[in-house]
Amino acid sequence: MIEAKGLAKRYGDKAAVAGLSFTVRPGMVTGFLGPNGAGKTTTMRLILGLDRPTEGSVTVNGKPFSGLYSPMREVGALLDAKAVHGGRSAYNHLLCLAQTNDIPRTRVDEVLSVVGLSEVAGKRSKGFSLGMSQRLGIAATLLGDPEILMFDEPVNGLDPEGILWIRNLMKRLAAEGRTVFVSSHLMSEMENTADHLIVIGRGRLIADCSAAEFIARSAPQAVHARPPRPDALARAVAAAGGRVTITGNATPGGSAELEVHGLDPERIGDAAFAAGVPLHLLAPSRASLEEAFMELTADSVEYQGAAHESRRLAGAGRKA
Amino acid sequence: MTSVTAQPGKPAAAKRVPAVPPATRRSGFAGTLRSEFTKLSSVRSTYFTLIAFFVAGLGFAIAATAGNRVNAGHPLFDPTATSLRGAVYLGELIIVVVGALVITSEYGTRMVSTSMTAMPRRGVLYGAKAVVLACVSLAVALVTSFASFFVGQAILASTHGGASITSPNALRAVLLSAAFVTCCALLAFGLGAIIRYTAGAVTTLFGLVFLIPLLAEALPDNWFHDMARWLPGGSALEPIVSTAPVPGETFLFGPYGELAVFAGYAAVAVVIGALLFRRRDA
Asked: What backbone phi and psi angles, to 5 degrees, belong to A46?
């Protein structure tokens, strides 16, 4: 459990994080979403006690991070996969971390095999590809078998195979009952992994809800329909209380792509059947997380654009 | 957080066997000391630098004693100092790289964030670094000082002008030389924590140890004599390597006094570094 209360961080007169409050709960993947520079990395650094908040506080399992009894057994965090001494072998890198928390050596071999780096354990990490570095960083987070895992943009720069691997790993960790907190600026990535979303923009909280709720709340539901006789369907839908907009051109056969608002697919199908209108396609169209996010952040940008200090708040995030 | 209730529509949390034995004590100094020793001993630069230190100290001892065989026996010739100057004057140039790198390499590679996540009690982390550095530096410096002394004296032996380790103050000079080099490593460590860049830390240290004493020599004699004993280098090092008071330099403290002055500079740097290490954002 991670709890932030009124968390704020200013660098000079730039606010990277401005009054964030949220809770990250166990047993699910919580996506931490926001455009580049929204303050995601800064927030994670504040959670880990790497940077000191200007205001507010954040606790991990009810304690400030530095008050943890055995930090690596409670939290595993990967902020920057390249933040390792390149001259040190993968094995020794993990060993020196394990030793700080009295974690036995045998665990180093275990996590190396979990991430598939056993063969290069003795190699200096300088020569590692980004994918290998990412795996080494993940191995470090697993050393203490922690209940809480934090990953900052873990799929950045990875190939499809690596992305799939990380995605499955995060789901597995969450299914084991752990708290998984993962940041991304890629909405599509979160759509595939996150159960819960914390969305920020310009250091402020925009949304804190389940992924499904986030989409439902921010974009109106629509249903795609492809009837061979669009006019007839439009009449039937209007009679049932819905609205129709044409989204695609009529094909030579006469069918057109329609979008129906205000009715669920069952009602549309029933109305079409009752009116004797044939249908070739009827599919609910889920707004993508991407669209939902754009819509929400557009609002926040507008709102903040009116605020006096919007210029100074803009782009105040910091990449470590 | 040991038991987790199932979320609606989600599979119940699987029972897990802990993969790591539970902590029997709070993560602290003992583990961090081992960690820091692993860090120092697992990068090549440590070995390169320490071997260079040993070779330079010993090499200088061989060259200086061999070249000064004609002076052996002269009342002003100090065979002990002749064999130790390399370990001290060259040694300090080299050991500071190790001292600074112990901390600046963490900033240079951004490893410091990872280290502080594993051990968020920064005082413990900093202290463990300082202790490991001091122990390793002292061990290598002692080996270098003794080797330089014995090899140097062996070269002088046939002239009957050499010293033995039981000669008056010879052992003191050997031990204090090693202690001085250790202080140099710690001074560089403290400056490294303050400045965070290897080049910046080493340059600052050279400025302190070489430039300031050099500039001081441009002062009028009586001013120079008043301040020379307080300088972190230059002629203030002579009493440390010598077995007898240095003729004509009576304005200096004795060997223990000069070592204490230098240790004081190192202590100030290490303490300021500690305060900044604890307070600043990583």
From this structure: -70, -40
Chains A, B: CB pairs < 8 Å: 148
Strand order in the sheet with A75-78: A75-78, A148-152, A179-184, A28-33, A196-201, A204-210
> Which residues lie across from A245 on neighbouring strands?
A259
pLDDT (average), residues A125-135: 93
Band of pLDDT at residue B9, cut at 50, 70 and 90: very low
What is the distance of C-alpha B155 from the center of its chain? 28
What is the reported pTM? 0.84
Residues of A in contact with B7 (CB under 8 A): 27-28, 195
Contact residues on chain A for B1, CB-CB shorter than 8 A: 1, 26, 61, 147-148, 179
Q: Decide if A101 and B109 are in contact by the 8 Å CB cutoff.
A: no
Q: Please compute the mean of the pLDDT values over residues B188-215 and round it to a whole number.
A: 93
**Amino acid letter, residue B48:** F
What DSSP state is assigned to residue A89? B
Question: Given this model, what pLDDT does residue A288 score?
Answer: 63
Name the residue among A59, A92, A60 with its Cα closest to residue A75.
Answer: A60
How far is residue A68's CA from residue A145's CA, in Å, rounded to a whole number? Answer: 15
Among A9, A29, A36, smallest CA distance to A20 is for A9
Whether pLDDT at A221 is above 80: no
Structure tokens at B70: 């004609």
pLDDT band at A40 (very low <50, low <70, confident <90, very high): very high
The topology under which CATH files domain A220-285 is Alpha-Beta Plaits (3.30.70)
Q: Is the pLDDT of residue A320 over 70?
A: no
**CATH superfamily of the domain spanning A2-211:** P-loop containing nucleotide triphosphate hydrolases (3.40.50.300)
pLDDT tens across A85-97, in order?
Answer: 999 999 999 999 9
- Dihedral over alpha carbons B77, B79, B80, B86 (to 10 degrees): 90
Distance CA B199, CA A146 (A): 38
How are strands ordered across the β-sheet holding A243-246? A243-246, A258-261, A222-225, A282-285
Q: Is A175 on the interface with B (CB under 8 A)?
A: yes
Task: Please count the CA atoms within 13 angstroms of the CA of A141 that sit on its side-chain side.
Answer: 31
